[in-house]
Design a protein that fits this description.
The structure is a homodimer.
Chain A (H helix, E strand, L loop, with lengths): L1 E4 H6 L2 H11 L3 E2 L1 E6 L5 E6 L2 E6 L2 E7 L7 H9 L1 E6 L5 H6 L10 H5 L3 E4 L2 E6 L4 E13 L4 E13 L19 E3 L3 E10 L13
Antiparallel strand pairs in A: 2-12, 3-4, 3-7, 5-6, 6-11, 7-10, 8-9, 10-11, 12-13
Chain lengths: 210, 210
């Protein structure tokens, strides 16, 4: 085993350090967040900071980087109050990754990377038609994280669109069947294989394998 | 494809809804967070809400559930200002899952589930010796999320301990070699396989496969 202190990490070259710290937290969901501005101009970006906040109410958060680095998604969410989160599978991984390029605000990343806008009548933001699991959120709150000028954007789930047969009889979603990818660090994409589902754990009682 | 609205989701039975909403965000890191209280009594719990906040400074967050449901970890972090996050691999997955049982505060989950405390001289919280990737954090801030009484606990990375040969030449951590697991929903554990690393994306320039 290696022991590395923060004093060592601080001496590292910027990109080396960013790769290391981004990987340290482990595998994460990777999704396309789609928005529109007040004029209806779509925007699409890759985010790997989506986090479950609670199920009742159904609240989901994501971290938006500082405004100077990543203004479009958060600006559009402030303007419209609505956004969609769309899972990524291997067939669209390269297009999804390309949407992380810094396009000018007037460019429609859907068109640029070759993905398709899909709309519901009551949701102003587009979904990614190709995505197997996607959901629309209504903005609840933007919490500034003052220590590094990032933001926790909190939304409530409004509409879910997903491929048939993913929902198991207890509400579990077999996302490996949708080929939803995980990511690692800033640039790596992973497929997954189920190891096990374990039953609810109680003290002094062996749990079931589901 | 299926379209499910929040009005339908709200009618679902509590555990069915929780499974569904927990799965919706996708795969996530799953880790053991270890703490001690002011008397040095260890506590261990499973968390799948760890999120990268930034690399410089190296800030990492996790969501702590409401105090009534999950008081021990956050109470200990408030008391000592220090905690460790420890990756889980298949060999220790069952023990890790068992640590999610609601043990009384005076019970040492390390002993109960069969994992080993490991200490650094300058870190009051224990690491999980068996874990292949683990890091100690110093508390920066606890941000209350008022909409559902959860908390975003923000810490800065202080010490990292990891298995040899995981760090690639650009700082990337090949966590599949450490067998770090991902999780899904409240009870599923997944292994991963690398699909690809994609180079930095720029408009109108094909990115490299790393």
């Amino acid at each position: 085993m290696q022991h590395i202190t923060i004093d060592t990490i601080k001496t590292w070259e910027r990109f080396y350090r960013a790769n290391f710290i981004n990987c340290l937290t482990g595998f994460k969901a990777v999704s396309l967040i789609a928005t529109v501005n007040a004029d209806g101009q779509p925007n699409l970006g890759v985010f790997s900071s989506v986090v479950h906040l609670g199920s009742d109410p159904a609240l989901i958060g994501f971290i938006n980087r500082p405004l100077a680095a990543a203004p479009h998604t958060i600006d559009n969410i402030k303007a419209t109050g609505v956004y969609t989160i769309n899972h990524i599978h291997p067939t669209i991984a390269a297009q999804a990754h390309q949407s992380s390029a810094k396009y000018p605000v007037e460019v429609n990343e859907f068109t640029e990377v070759g993905l398709t806008e899909m709309y519901l009548p009551n949701v102003v933001a587009p979904f990614v038609q190709e995505s197997n699991v996607k959901y629309a959120l209504s903005l609840v709150e933007i919490v500034p994280i003052t220590h590094n000028n990032t933001f926790l954007v909190i939304g409530k789930v409004m509409d879910v669109i997903l491929a048939d047969n993913l929902i198991k009889n207890d509400g579990f979603l077999a996302l490996e069947q949708a080929e939803s990818l995980a990511s690692l660090g800033v640039d790596a994409y992973y497929t997954t294989q189920k190891l096990a589902r374990f039953g609810y754990a109680k003290p002094d009682v062996p749990f079931a394998k589901l």
